[in-house]
Amino acid sequence: MQLRYNYRLYPTPSQRQALAKAFGCARVVYNDGLRVQQDAHAAGLPYISDAELQRRVLTEAKKTPERAWLAEVSAVVLQQAVADLNAA
Which residue numbers delimit the Transposase putative helix-turn-helix domain (predicted)? Predict the structure, then answer.
């Protein structure tokens, strides 16, 4: 017999804000990585590795003033967004 459980979370307003920030940053990183991969494909360049893609859309992006806010969330969330992109 298999059991199934349902869970529901009720985050506080501050937790809700932190989750929204993390999800938003993950979306931006995913979209930036997708754009880099599409540009490389259109230019006829080889597939960009996971490590190189992380360097471009995470490490280098955090150094720019336009994307400095990416450093405010956990790096694990951003790295997982890049891994999800490569899995897709």
Answer: 1-44
